[in-house]
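Researcher: I'm preparing a figure for a lab meeting and need a structural model of a single chain. I don't have an experimental structure, so a prediction will have to do for now. The sequence is pasted below. Please return the structure as tokens so I can convert it later.
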Amino acid sequence: MKNEHTHPNRICWIDAARVIAILLVMQAHTPLSGLFNHDSEGGAVALFFLLSGFFAQRGTFTAVLQRLGCLLPFYIIWVTYGLLVMNHGFNFSLSMYWDTLLHGSSNGMWFILYLIYFTIIGGVALQIPLILRICISVALIAYGAYQGIAENVIHPCMNIYYGLGVYLLGQLAHRIKPSEWKHYLFPSHTTMRWTPACILIIILLLSALNANPIPSWLLIWVSSWAILGTAVAIDATAPTFGTALARLGESVVFVYAIHMATLRMMISAYLRFTGTMPSYMVSAAFILLLFVAASWFYFTIRGKWAVTDLFLFARWRKSTK
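Model: Understood. Here is the structure written out token by token.
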């Protein structure tokens, strides 16, 4: 397909899927979470874990250290900011700080902490036989789903075993070319092309009605498939729009890095001036405004700096252009 790549190292429809996924994650951190339950967010998080594993294929010690060098500084800065600023330093202590670093913060950085762990484990996993990796991945997903149900987690990917299984599955998926994903997983006929998008809309509607008929551990796979399928349909039907959406997909990591703190400040300011929480429409406007502004800021920086890592939190270097 002509619109397969935004540039040689990026896959257009996967970047477009990232945009859809980050918008679903962002809505979970606004009053919109009262409209849609966390099943929709769970599919987006599962997709991010899957893609993280997919693009983390080098298991050498140097490659693992490089990825950790991208993740650890940001995670430490965010945890420090969360404890000192967002919590106003309430009951701050070194023991609490250390415990938060090891077990994740309440400010949404559990995802980054999991990626740190998964990067280390995934680097080791790449050295073991393929059939054993498949068995480990399936076992982790099954156990994580069971434990997540027992612990009543918000969505299964918040269980570290389930998330690790999805990450390792992403590493296995790298053996299949993305073009083959499209061929085997998504309808290509014109009349059926938008089926995944319709299913995604149905999931969101059922989520709003709190009437999803299938368990969340299964629903997140349907949601992830629907997100990717929607991106494929956009790329095939409207290549120009798909390319623009994919271009925005390059900023998703940066948007994720700043979205929670920024949304909290926006909601807090709205509450201070109006005395009420933002409505669903206002919350949606906040999400779109933040995404557009953050992407603009990212590409403004990109004019002088270049990203060396395409999915994990980026390390910056001076551009050679």
